[in-house]
Design goal:
Blueprint: H1 2-7, E1 10-15, E2 34-40, H2 47-56, E3 63-66, H3 73-77, E4 84-90, H4 99-106, E5 110-121, H5 128-141, H6 151-157, E6 161-168, E7 180-187
Parallel strand pairs: 1-2, 1-4, 2-3, 4-5
Antiparallel strand pairs: 5-7, 6-7
Helix pairs in contact: 4-6
Length: 189
């Protein structure tokens, strides 16, 4: 996922990293401009493997796990508004119980000019009946993942953006049953 390799800079907030399957993309060798990564992961059962993956990627001293959900960052995370250079959400907003609220709470943490890197499931604009039926089953097998959310629209509504480079993921067509959106939103200065 090239989006993550060279786009994250400074202080990063990695929302819902799970066991850290994407952490290698932030490896110090490929991105020396990252100064700190806060991995916000509420599932404590994932923490040991997430820590191992961060160490293997050469980020042991830069990667800190915050053991709470994104909805608790204001009280437990210790992060001040305007203190984050990069917010990263990779296939996590589809599983968070209150994504629209979380998106609005994450936006103020970004510095003016900060970037939000996105790779998320979004609802399809087509095949709504079929996807609606599929979504009755899907969340039970994939940790609550809801494939009918307009996450891209919620991100755009979170606040003012100077630049929005957000679109369908390469290789996906408009009739895909479970489409993704990927790209970067840059917070207004």
């Amino acid at each position: 996922m090239p989006l993550l390799q060279n786009s994250a800079t400074g202080i990063c907030l990695d929302i819902g990293p799970g066991t850290g399957q994407w952490v290698y993309l932030f490896a110090r060798a490929s991105n020396p401009s990252i100064t700190k990564i806060y991995g916000v992961e509420p599932n404590k059962a994932f923490h040991a493997e997430l820590r191992r993956n961060a160490v293997e990627a050469g980020l042991g001293d830069k990667y800190e796990i915050i053991g709470c959900g994104a909805e608790e960052l204001a009280t437990k995370g210790g992060l001040e508004p305007g203190s984050v250079d990069t917010v990263i959400t990779v296939q996590c907003l589809c599983s968070i119980p209150t994504p629209q609220k979380i998106i609005k709470e994450l936006y103020p943490l970004l510095k003016p000019g900060g970037k939000w890197l996105v790779f998320e499931h979004v609802r399809t604009k087509y095949q709504n009946d079929f996807v609606g039926v599929l979504n009755n089953i899907w969340p039970h097998f994939l940790n609550g993942c809801d494939i009918t959310r307009p996450t891209d629209e919620w991100l755009l509504q979170a606040g003012k953006w100077d630049d929005v480079q957000l679109g369908p993921t390469a290789g996906e067509g408009k009739y895909d049953t479970i489409p993704h959106v990927s790209g970067t939103l840059t917070k207004a200065k």
